[in-house]
Fold each of these.
Amino acid sequence: MSFKNILSVLLLILTIKFASGQEEKFHLPDILGYQTLKCDFHMHTVFSDGLVWPTFRVEEAWREGLDAISITDHIEYTPHSSDVPVNHNRPYEIAKSLAEEKDILLIRGAEITRGMPPGHLNVLFIKDASTLVNEDVFEVLKNAGEQGAFIHWNHPGWRAQAPDSTIWWDEHTRLYENGLLHGIEVFNYHSYYPEAIVWAVEKDLTVMANSDVHSTTDYDKMIQSNHRPLTLVFGKSRTEEGIKDALFDQRTIAWLGNTLMGNAAFLESFFFASGDISDVPLSLSKGEVKYIHYKNYTDVDYELELVRGSDSDSFSAPEEFVLKARQYSTPVNRDKGKGKGFLGAGVILQSKKYEGEFNTIMGRYFFI
Ligand SMILES: [Zn+2]
Ligand SMILES: [Zn+2]
């Protein structure tokens, strides 16, 4: 999947709400012949500035039903070093056997931690984190690239490093042009970086959402109401190779709170794979009332807004409707008396041009 042809690729924002009281292992649909894998590629332990032991990250991910994680401790920032010896490979080594036992895919990673530019970048699927110590950040990332790393720019608009505006620097162009920048965090922790989605479209970068958790997801209030930020990866298999292949091929959706962002093809498939629509009334006689039935099989509440088409005067339907998780929903469609109108989910789900601060992006559509 390529973002290259911007006009033909629609980006969608799909606003959803995770069902309250969800089970620990939540259900999301597989799409387009791929498995949907719930991944978090950014977190810390006591081996950098985190507050937990590496095995805790595995337990935490298992409790929350994740498929894959990467522990990405800072290479250049190790404030616990007087108590915990600096060893950039230890977090992975310590967590590995528990990850195998719990069937969590553990991806070896690290966070390259520099001032802006280029800021912080995660290197995933590396083979040896101890080799990433070098003053020259370009050399470090080149080394990671030679190890086969997938490299993504973290929290590009983090206030500490981008106090006024979020900027794509010349250094990022240099990394990008040398094949050393593949993805970008649209969501990190509780934050959203709108510029990242613009650059993802322009430059074919993979969209990511990661927790960057330093304490626990519970303490950081990521899971009380819904879920931690997740990168949904569409893999050919539930393996490390399957994830790597998908990340390099931009097969992801970034999910924070009640918003999903990603390529339209994936978002549309994701929604339509979430349930069954039946009995869609395509026409009404005067004064007639018909119903749509939608069975939502997932643990996602879909918040829909009616988007009116050209013949919209001929019918009425709820302006807003929630397709509840794991429930059978019945939005009513009522004819206003003008005869035919195109009714049904197709109307309710028609996209509208996104308006607001990002309306300069052509072809971006919005579902709520
Ligand atoms: Zn960082
Ligand atoms: Zn971090």
Amino acid sequence: METSRMAILFFLVAGMSSFIIIHVYGDNASPNGALFSRKHSHLQKMQVSKDSFLQRDSLSSSRHPKLQSTTSSETTIPLVYHLTSYGADPTGKADSTDAILAAISDALKGPGNGFLIEGIVNLGGARVDLDGGNYLISRPIQFPISGRGNLVIHGGSLTASGDFPSDGYLIDLSPASKNGSGYNYEFVTLRDLFLDSNFRGGGIQVVNSLRTNIDNCYITHFNTTGISVQGGHETYIRYSYLGQYITAGGDSNERNFSGTGIVLSGNDNAVTDTVIFSAAIGILILGQANTLSGVHCYNKATGFGGTGIYIKTPGLAQTWIVNSYLDFTGIVAEDPVQLTVSSSFFLGDAFVLFKSIKGIANGLNIVDNMFSGSDKGIDIVQLDQSNGPFNQVDQVVIDRNNVRGMNIKATVARGIVQGNSTSWTADFNSVLVFPNLIKQVQYAFVTDSNSFPVHALRNVSGNKVVIQSNVAVPASVYITADQGGTSFST
Ligand SMILES: *[C@@H]1O[C@H](CO)[C@@H](O)[C@H](O)[C@H]1NC(C)=O
Ligand SMILES: *[C@@H]1O[C@H](CO)[C@@H](O)[C@H](O)[C@H]1NC(C)=O
Ligand SMILES: *[C@@H]1O[C@H](CO)[C@@H](O)[C@H](O)[C@H]1NC(C)=O
Ligand SMILES: *[C@@H]1O[C@H](CO)[C@@H](O)[C@H](O)[C@H]1NC(C)=O
Ligand SMILES: *[C@@H]1O[C@H](CO)[C@@H](O)[C@H](O)[C@H]1NC(C)=O
């Protein structure tokens, strides 16, 4: 059979159109400063034995007006523990570790108001107030006991001293002494905090806790991990900034960035509207059912060995990443099963890498993203098959991404093959993500010749599709090849 010259033109659903280049780089809440604002005498008596209680109370009282209770019920009177009332040094010169631990200890051992989940005493919204100070600490602020909840720590800065333990966290929600086998804490809120780990250890550790809020925190100079979540459920990290070095991008030291911004080693957590501006890995995911939304990673460029989001849960990811911004640093997922990456922006040749461990890629949606690169021929989705090929691929949809200055890759490819011939071959290798895997083909055979040729799909192999006819005719053959869809047979 004679095969004439054929012009192949690929076009994809995610067509190219014009783009705009976006440049990177680019309380004292209590009316009462008193250590304990309760007026109920027996509660105060409980505290009298504490060191220097009277002095702190009187000091505070002399500076602040007395609390006006809005209700006669003692359980609605707020408890606010001011670090300055405990002798902590808000100028950051003297070591304030003991004072802060005393305040935390009093807060945790303060009066409760019933229970949250079983085993968690409800502290009723007690607050540890940093009074806008910056405190030097030489040991982790590790919670002394477990089984407490509904507590807020907020409003100031903590800085690790030069002899802070290199494996410690400035704030450590793993109890020094554990009481019971349930969750350690519930509904602890860490808010409006600036944490400087001074290149000694990490920022915050949350262990086996429920419904922890980390909100509007700036965590820097960590040498291990900015925020580490171990076990538990529903730690929500919101509106926060994490960076090992304080930089706004293009840092000459970027190759040396180390450490991890956030580790989620548990389920059902969320990171929303959070920036990781320097670290080797932005977010490391080691559990399931975690959601990332509005995350901006420019921690360490892929080209320097960095990773924006690393999903290291081979066999079951159950992770969804939406509305995020991967800025010169990409996403890596090992044997991903159930992973969505959608409505996100990849800048600076950032891409998605699937790393084969046992060859599984199942339930993936990499759709409706924007990719922008620098014409270096970088594929938007890549495979690392150094451990073996992906050979268990099902329900993978990589499609509808728009691409500028990078190579588009997809699991759905469409092409037109034109020619006066008996054979039309479309080679989709440059577009399709997986080698030698086409699950479904559809084609339309369009000819304006007077004859009505017999034609058929004759061969699908090596990501090539061959259509043949019984007689030579000038024809355009429109072919769609799909690697992803589940096949249904009837
Ligand atoms: C910081 O971490 C690096 C490894 O990433 C380690 O070599 C170094 O000793 C650590 N620094 C401190 C002060 O512990
Ligand atoms: C441990 O919990 C039990 C029961 O809630 C309580 O009676 C006990 O005082 C707690 N111990 C400590 C050290 O918190
Ligand atoms: C990276 O770190 C090494 C070792 O600490 C240092 O010699 C080098 O100057 C650093 N690079 C930059 C660009 O600062
Ligand atoms: C198509 O090819 C056949 C066989 O080579 C030839 O006879 C015919 O004229 C060609 N038709 C057109 C429109 O070029
Ligand atoms: C399909 O094409 C491949 C590659 O050219 C070839 O090895 C194979 O034998 C073909 N299959 C059939 C059924 O013709």
